[in-house]
Amino acid sequence: MHTPVLADLAVRVPITSPDTPMGEIEAVLRADPELLGIVTSAGDDLYLIDRGFLDMILAGRLGYGRALLHRRPLRSCCDARPWCSRGAPSGATRRAPRCSGRTRSRRSR
Fold first, then answer.
1. For the chain, which residues score pLDDT lower than 70?
2. What confidence score (pLDDT) does residue 102 get?
């Protein structure tokens, strides 16, 4: 029997430059229905662009997003908050030392 590991849940996604036009990203996602998303990096930050997010961005507020954003670089649609940052410690990493110093009665259960 196979013991499940975290890698069993992982899927491969392509990594692209943040300068890739959004029209190309849309074409890649449409060409492969099994592809869940694309990752782009900007410095130490990683951004996950999934189908739902891309569709929402390309629809635009008034329905003209696809025509307006087709040639714009992917970096123009990335949120201010990255999915993952390789440079800065995560919130859990920053909180762990403070939590371990608390008395047992002050720790959350």
1. 79-109
2. 56
In which domain, by residue range, is 34 found? 6-106
Amino acid 6: pLDDT: 76
Main-chain phi, psi angles of 93, to 5 degrees: -65, -40
Task: Classify residue 1: in a domain, yes or no.
Answer: no
54 found inside a domain: yes
pLDDT for position 21: 92
Total domains present in the chain: 1
Query: Residue 70: CA atoms inside 13 Å, Cβ hemisphere, count?
Result: 5
Name, in order, each residue with C-beta under 8 angstroms of 21's C-beta and a sequence gap of 6 or more: 70, 71, 72, 73, 74
Long-range contacts of 94-100 (CB under 8 A, 24+ apart): none
Residue 64 counted as domain residue: yes
Query: Residue 40 is part of a domain; what is its CATH number?
Result: 3.10.580
Q: What are the phi and psi torsion angles at 82 (to 5°)? A: -70, 160
User: Which one-letter DSSP state was computed for residue 6?
Assistant: G
30 within domain boundaries: yes
